[in-house]
Each structure stands twice: as C-alpha cells, then as structure tokens.
Amino acid sequence: MPAIRRGPLTDLRIVEFAGLGAAPFCSMLLAELGADVVRVDRPGAAAPNAYSLISRSRRSITLDLKTSGDTQIALSLIERADALTESFRPGVMERLGLGPEVALARHPRLVYGRLSGWGQNGPLAQAAGHDINYTALSGALHAIGAPERPSIPLNLISDLGGGALYLAMGVLAGVLHARASGEGQVVDCAMSDGAASLMTMYYGAVAAGEWNDQRLSNRLDGGAYFYSTYECADGLWIALGPLEPQFYARLLTLLGLKSRDDWDDPDEPRSWAARRARLGNLIRQRPRNEWIALLEGTDACFAPVLSLKDAPHQPHHRARDTFVSAFGITQPAPAPRFSKTPGAIQSAPPQPGEHAREILQEWNIRTSGT
User: Fold this and answer.
1) 332 DSSP β-pair partners
2) ∠ CA(32), CA(173), CA(204), 5° rounding?
3) Residues forming CATH 3.30.1540.10 domain(s) in the chain
4) List of residues 6+ apart from 274 with CB closer than 8 A
5) Is domain 13-198+334-362 classified as CATH 3.40.50.2000?
6) Virtual CA dihedral for 4, 8, 9, 10, nearest 10 degrees?
7) 317 catalytically annotated
C-alpha cells in the first residue's frame, strides 16, 4: 500500500535522474509539496545516509542506463510522468538514448527539465564548474565581501537559488502550460543564468547610477553602518538593518541616540565609516542577550546572528515549527506553507533501488521478470 502523500502537488509525477547538489534539492522541494518523485539511481550508487537531508521525501529505483532493458524501463517511467529532471553535462542523456527528442516523441506532454552549470549551449557548456564559478561570472561574487577580497556565500546563490529554485519554477510552469495546451517542452535551467537573474535589481541600480560597483560601499552590501553586523561584549554577533527612516529612528531611540543631531542623515556615505566605529563601540559594551532583550521584536530591524546549532532553538522558529525533528534529526521543515494542502517531509532518504518493486507496480510497468 503506497504511503499517502501530502501537499498541493499530489497529482504530479516526476522522474529524477540522480545528480548532486542543486538537482536533489529541487526534487526535495517538489516532493515535499506532494509530488511523487521517483529517483533513478545507478547500480552501485553510494547510499545516502540519514543525514543526506536533501535526499528525503522520495523513492528510488536502480537502473543501469547502459543496458537496453533498463533504458526501456526508464522510458516507460518517462511516458507516465509529468516531468523529468536531469543534471548531467549537455549530451549525456542523448548518449544514453534518453534525450529530449526521444522522450518528447514518446510523450509529447512531457516537461523535460535540464539543470546544468553553464546551460545546454555556449562556449562553457561542456566545462566543469561549481557554485563559486557560476556566481563569479554573474557579477554577484564581485559584489559580496570586504574591499580586499570577495566572500563566498556558501553555495546558496547559484546551486540552490539560481539552480534548484529556478528549475522547480521552470518545471511547474512547464506543467501548467502542458496541461493547458497538450504540449511539453524542454526547460534549460543554467545555474549561471539563475545567478544572473537573481542580480536583476542590482543591475538596475548600476544602470541608474545608484550602486557603486565596489564592495562594502553600498546600502545593502554592508557598506552602510545601519545595515551591518556588530560584535557584542561576549564575542557574539548581531545584525542591524533599519533601512527606512522610521525604523532607523526607532533604533536610535532604543539606543539612546535619538536626540543626537550627529546621527541624522544616515544616507550620507561620508559619515558611514566614523558612525560604524562609534556604533561598534556602543554594541561592544553589552553581551548579546542584553541587546536581544532591548531590540528583538521591535521595529529596529534587529536579529542575533545565530549559529546552525542555535537557530533551531530560537523562540520564533520554535513557535512556527521552522525546524522539525524527523527520523531523529533536527532539520528545516518544508516551505512555503499552504493553508489547505500543507506539504510534509514524506519519508527518510531512500536507499538506491529501495522502492523498485512498488514503483513498477504503481506506475503499471511490466518488465521481463514480472
């Protein structure tokens, strides 16, 4: 008896050809909104352990795509799916006999989601790369960090933001179009494209002359003293971000600086360095807990800079169940939230091939052994 899935996408079937990083994160997002995501693993693939959280919520079948029999099973899965996702280098799926031309010929309504670093064409299409490279080429890496050196924003920009989220959006948009028109299509999702897209607001600001193309010299890159982080007396950190005048005024009031004329006109960059030093000296006079007691929950736009160990225990997160305990591990809950069809962590990370029999039965696929 198949498990009951929860979420707004329970009528959606997706075949995921196993990959790394961004692709499984995309599949996790879709699965936790209710989609039945079947992951096709290679024989001998390393089994994800319980801590491979982005592998959760879907089922696995093992297929050797270099054999004709297993390729036929893969095509049978594709024929019964709304969409597939793959994250190989351009041309790999074609060489396996599973490229878009073959797949769409057999299933014209299919949405064929392709995730790659540089996209399916272009001078760099066949080059290896990782998040840091795609983020660098987009202009985003240049804009983040101290003047002397760019900072690495984990792999949040290109892999997870510009890759996984854009692929999920592209697949869902393609499915809506296919259901309305009967026509499937290929979604070419390049992490380098996604990273550039995420920078749209900043390219507009550059064109308008409102953004200095040097790190730590703008309102949102840490250049402004009122949008920055500060160390407290106990060595812990807080983040301040009162960009709007009324929020800035509230911060000054709470800090006892409201009556000081020398804190007026915060948008004058020539004052930023001196005020940052003065504000830093003030914040260092108290431990972080005292700043939390004074500023948290106010319109001063304040938050403590929490570690990965501390964040799940923060009262706001606990009240909203932002983090949950599943399979003995504290982990982020599915997002976003739906009032009528809430998503869920559907299952633990699967072992390769763990669900082969039930997948073939549920998807009504016959093999030579059945």
Assistant:
1) 323
2) 105
3) 228-315
4) none
5) no
6) 20
7) no
**Residues paired with residue 149 on neighbouring β-strands, in sequence order:** 146
CATH code given to domain 228-315: 3.30.1540.10
List the catalytic residue out of 36, 82, 131, 159: 159
Taking only the tens place, the pLDDT of each residue in 335-362 is 999 999 999 999 999 999 999 999 999 9
Confidence (pTM): 0.95
pLDDT digits (tens, 9 = 90+) for 75-109: 999 999 999 999 999 999 999 999 999 999 999 99
**159 classed as catalytic:** yes
Q: 160-194 pLDDT, tens per residue?
A: 999 999 999 999 999 999 999 999 999 999 999 99
Residues of the chain where predicted confidence (pLDDT) is lower than 70: 1-3, 368-370
CATH 3.40.50.10540 segments of the chain: 13-198+334-362
The active-site residue, picked from 130, 142, 177, 317, is 130
